[in-house]
Specification:
The complex is a heterodimer of chains A (about 350) and B (about 325). Chain A is built from eleven helices and twelve strands. Chain A is α/β, with parallel strands linked by helices and about 350 residues long. Chain A has two domains: about 5-20 and about 30-95 and about 175-340, Rossmann fold, CATH 3.40.50; about 110-175, no CATH class. In chain B, the strands form two sheets. Chain B has an eight-stranded mixed sheet, with helices on both faces. In chain B, strands 2-1-4-5 form a four-stranded antiparallel sheet, covered by helices on one side. Classes of the chains: A alpha/beta (about 350), B alpha/beta (about 325). Chains A and B meet through α7, α8 and α10 of A and α7, α8, α9 and α10 of B.
Chain lengths: ~350, ~325
């Protein structure tokens, strides 16, 4: 892939949440939900963003979309600066970035038929002719594998898998280039999840889409994504091609996450060192490296300054001071990992 | 058959709805050995939670048990009345860990009040003495339990409200609640779905330790095969209210025999091969025929599949498979 095909660039993006003064309440300090995130998304790739709840992955997705104003940093889409613009212009500049909600059932209006929901987007985007709108809706329904006869039906009449397809159809109507998928398979059964993932791959191939895949399901991410960014408390701690990050995780948090994920593999029950500590909240960020309070390799220096992002490989970034000292291979050596955590 | 603590035999259950009678459970059949963890796995709507509700006797209105029995420590629970269930079984001999730790605790009462209430209801005679003296003894037991489930500062935890705990800690509180009366059987209904993976691992490790330490038996209901692989000794796969395959977890995951189990495992992202999914939809329990409910989606289906349920085939390894294909294999072998 060439450098020229960068679709989205984030440079040092930070997002603050809350902090505004409400009636009769004291002004609270804002929460740094996303902190200094730099990220490139290449045209046509699937970039996974993985982390536990509260790590800021949804906020990051919303910021890229423009639903959330960034507090600092730069966002470039297709080579043009789209951050720091007034809302109206930002909206136009980000027109081809779209978002698929985590809970498809909640994202659809229960009082509106599927057909009406789908047509609304076209109305907003100025397609005047009802016949033309109808044609496009039918076409897009067929593209996501739904029967056009679903148009007069209401969301509660559809299954979870069908609702996801409707949610996808809704954004495909607007010919997106970048799609932010927020946990697109959470709450789906495995057999349905497989068909939805398959559909996403097929749509990418046919329509040349780029996906930002926000998820906490490591099994899915491993199968589905080209590159993976691991987030912890608003920061990206590691970023690498999917195969590499699962075979050779460098950051201690990535390792902890991978070791904790249930796997179907057939080796006897792994004897693992228990996960240490509770995920902290972004309200009280620890000083220095945010992972240091739970990190088995932390030394005093870790809590003094934020670690710089280093590049151990051409496509690999890790934000850890000590990655060189703690790098036994994970693949095929779980016992090594155990001694590591011991 | 060795020592079974819970046997569910040919359980059939239907629920009357506005649109007709839904045959929610049809031919559910499994055994939980003492000291084992049995995973009950199936997709949403297959009747997993209904099985749990049938065992503890809290069925929704309109539910009717058609046939079958649920034997717990040799006694048929379906023959017991509400009073006997409350006094002897629920909470006392069978503990329950619910799915959602955010919904299962009452937000307006202190955690200590809620945990002590369990003992007061289900095991008033678990401690000597009366009145406040007994309460103090109960309190001691709860503190001990909270310490065992690794709740930091258990004494102070009793004085706090549910919203002051994180999801993982709330699940620990509920595990302590389930264990409060030292039950023989613990039923866990998807206890980790609402949790992050690292917290999930902590809870799974804790459950495994508790099973080994107290000799508990556990019925673990889940849709997550990865979790099953980690925790469960035995596995029971359910499809649309019918048991399709039972056996040792490792054996089934290594080599599934029933076509549904095979298709389900092939959908798992950890398994190689293309992600195809299973064609077709889960049939509605309203229009269920007499045969195998997987037949319309099964690539090996024959005409006979729609007409009758297959005979249960017990393989030499102890695995049970409900499939016509295996019937044939067995008759060939004999």
């Amino acid at each position: 892939m060439t450098e020229a095909s960068l679709l989205l660039e984030l440079r040092d993006v930070s997002v603050l949440l809350g902090g505004e003064r409400r009636l009769l309440e004291k002004k609270s300090a804002p929460v740094r939900a996303v902190d200094g995130v730099s990220l490139d998304v290449r045209e046509g790739e699937i970039l996974g963003i993985v982390g536990e709840s509260g790590c800021g992955k949804t906020t990051l997705g919303r910021t890229i979309l423009g639903l959330q104003r960034e507090a600092g940093g730069e966002i470039r889409f297709d080579g043009r600066l789209v951050s720091g613009l007034p809302p109206k212009r930002a909206c136009i500049a980000r027109r081809t970035i779209h978002y698929v909600h985590q809970d498809a059932a909640a994202a659809l209006d229960p009082w509106w038929s599927i057909g009406r929901t789908l047509e609304e987007a076209l109305v907003i985007h100025g397609v005047r002719s009802a016949v033309l709108r109808g044609e496009r809706v039918d076409k897009v329904l067929a593209a996501v594998g739904l029967d056009p006869s679903l148009r007069p039906r209401y969301p509660h009449e559809l299954s979870g898998g069908q609702l996801r397809r409707v949610a996808l159809a809704r954004i495909l109507l607007l010919q997106p280039r970048l799609v932010v998928l927020d946990e697109p398979t959470s709450g789906l059964d495995m057999s349905v999840q497989a068909t939805v993932l398959n559909l996403l791959l097929e749509l990418r191939r046919r329509l040349g889409l780029t996906y930002l895949f926000v998820s906490h399901d490591l099994s899915v991410v491993r199968r589905f994504c080209d590159r993976v960014a691991i987030m912890y408390l608003g920061r990206i701690v590691e970023l690498a091609p999917s195969a590499e990050i699962f075979a050779r995780p460098l950051h201690p948090y990535t390792r902890m996450l991978l070791a904790a994920a249930p796997r179907l593999d057939l080796e006897p029950r792994r004897v693992r060192q228990p996960v240490a500590g509770e995920p902290p909240s972004a309200v009280h960020l620890p000083p220095g490296c945010v992972f240091s309070p739970r990190c088995p390799h932390a030394e005093p220096a870790c809590s003094e300054a934020q670690p710089a992002t280093e590049c151990p490989g051409p496509n690999h970034q890790v934000a850890c001071r000590r990655w060189r000292d703690i790098r036994p291979e994970l693949a095929g050596a779980p016992e090594l990992l155990n001694t590591l955590f011991a | 058959m060795s020592d079974a603590i819970l046997e569910v035999r040919d359980l059939r259950l239907s629920i009357a709805t506005d649109e007709g009678v839904a045959k929610v459970l049809d031919n559910i059949d499994f055994t939980l050995e003492r000291g084992h963890v049995l995973g009950v796995v199936g997709e949403s709507g297959c009747g997993k939670s209904t099985i749990v509700r049938a065992i503890i006797g809290v069925l929704p209105t309109g539910a009717r048990i058609g046939s079958g029995e649920i034997r717990f420590e040799g006694e048929n629970l379906l023959g017991l009345g509400e009073r006997a269930l409350n006094r002897r079984i629920r909470g006392r001999r069978i503990g329950f860990i619910p799915q959602d730790p955010y919904l299962a605790l009452n937000p307006v009462f202190k955690v200590g009040t809620q945990l002590l209430e369990i003992l007061r209801w289900h095991a008033p005679d678990a401690a000597d003495g009366r009145g406040s003296h007994r309460d103090r003894a109960h309190r001691g037991r709860i503190v001990q339990l909270l310490r065992r489930v690794q709740m930091p500062d258990p004494e102070a935890a009793l004085e706090r409200f549910p919203h002051q705990f994180s999801g993982g800690q709330r699940q620990r509180l509920l595990i302590a609640a389930a264990l409060a009366c030292s039950p023989a059987l613990v039923i866990a209904d998807e206890p980790t779905t609402a949790l992050d993976v690292t917290t999930q691992q902590q809870i799974l490790d804790l459950l495994r330790d508790l099973v080994d330490e107290f000799g508990l038996s556990m019925l673990f209901v889940t849709h997550d095969l990865g979790v099953v692989a980690e925790l469960c000794d035995d596995l029971c796969v359910i499809y649309a209210g019918q048991t399709v395959e039972r056996g040792h977890t490792a054996a089934i995951l290594a080599e599934p025999h029933h076509p549904y189990t095979r298709a389900l495992l092939a959908c798992h992202p950890d398994r190689a091969g293309s992600l195809t999914g299973i064609p077709g939809m889960v049939p509605s329990p309203l229009h269920a025929g007499p045969g195998c409910r997987f037949a319309p989606r099964c690539e090996h289906a024959r005409p006979v599949c729609a007409v009758r349920r297959p005979h249960l085939v017990r393989e030499p390894s102890g695995r049970l498979v409900d499939c016509v294909l295996h019937e044939r294999l067995e008759s060939l072998a004999s």
